[in-house]
Amino acid sequence: MHGMNVRVGTSDPGTPQVRRVVGLVGGTGALGRGLTRQLSMAGHRVRIGSRDLARAEAITAMMGSGVVAVTNQGACDADLVLVTVPWSGHDEILLSLRDALTGRTVVDCVNPLGFDERGPFPLSVDAGSATQRAQQLLPGSVVVGAFHHVSADQLASDDLLDSDVLVVGDDRDALHAVIDLVDTITGLRGVYAGRLRNAGQIEALTANLIAINRRYGVQSGVRIAGLD
Ligand SMILES: NC(=O)c1ccc[n+]([C@@H]2O[C@H](COP(=O)([O-])OP(=O)(O)OC[C@H]3O[C@@H](n4cnc5c(N)ncnc54)[C@H](OP(=O)(O)O)[C@@H]3O)[C@@H](O)[C@H]2O)c1
Questions:
Q1: How far apart are the CA of 29 and the centre of ligand 1, in A?
Q2: Ligand 1 atom nearest residue 130's Cα
Q3: Of 27, 51, 115, 159, which is most buried by a Cβ count within 10 Å?
Q4: pTM of the model
Q5: What's the rounded Cα separation, in Å, for the pair 209 and 199?
């Protein structure tokens, strides 16, 4: 590892895993449901947030123990707050939660993508990426980017997971916390992939993966070669 000396895949067998409270803003959607399933199986407590508490309650009823339904505001009361809303609602929801997210570690999972007759493509974002935009909007929070390219369908299925999760950020402690969280999910490995300014390529890469999925009828993922 060059530069930041951030660990890769740190959950060695025998290392006690920290149980986290994870909040999901927009947790009722495809990614939120998939992550909830995996995180609760890994022993974490999950707070599924929604603009409509009844929607979160309906999803929570299908999940196991350790999962609670909350408003998006309530989802911010967590060790790590994952943002799993569409890009179209990203800025507005983050602005509305700015106070609740102050002092929190926020994990932006949002991909600014467009879709037309030629397939998926990355949208241009003035801030450089959704993740950088989140940090602009939330100056009192520490923003990390992760889970952008992990298939929600795969997280929700019984298939064994076997892929890396690229994690970007500028704060070492927050990066450690997010990489460690990824590592608690069986079959996923968190990999430090650069500072926040490198989030855009990862968000855009998801357009390639969706194109691959459509062409080959698979749920593709990312695996970095050369790491132990
Ligand atoms: N799907 C995937 O495989 C996948 C994988 C990696 C990353 N992502 C990224 O993760 C994000 C969520 O994807 P998704 O497929 O889970 O999306 P989704 O199902 O369309 O939406 C997720 C949730 O966001 C909330 N929401 C919708 N519009 C909103 C708005 N305008 N403002 C605030 N909240 C809104 C909704 O919850 P309530 O109505 O309950 O509030 C919805 O259930 C996207 O940015 C996507 O690029 C997706």
A1: 5
A2: 45
A3: 27
A4: 0.95
A5: 16
